[in-house]
Amino acid sequence: MSGKSTWIAVAAAVAVVVVLVVPMARFWSGLGDAGMSEGGWVALVLGVVATLVLGIGLMALVFISNRRGYD
Q: What share of the chain is helix, strand, coil (3-state, %, to 5)?
């Protein structure tokens, strides 16, 4: 890839992120004082931990299978 096409791709990716983040930020600020219960926090923490464990486990399997020649 040439340098110019790389910069175009980066600029397009940044533009997409800005187009998505700006409406989300306006919506979030429009919610006001929305609280979350203890059960909500527990569910959030468990969801984040489960997602991290799954992602790390799958990436470990990818590296292990690559090193052992299964790919």
A: 85, 0, 15
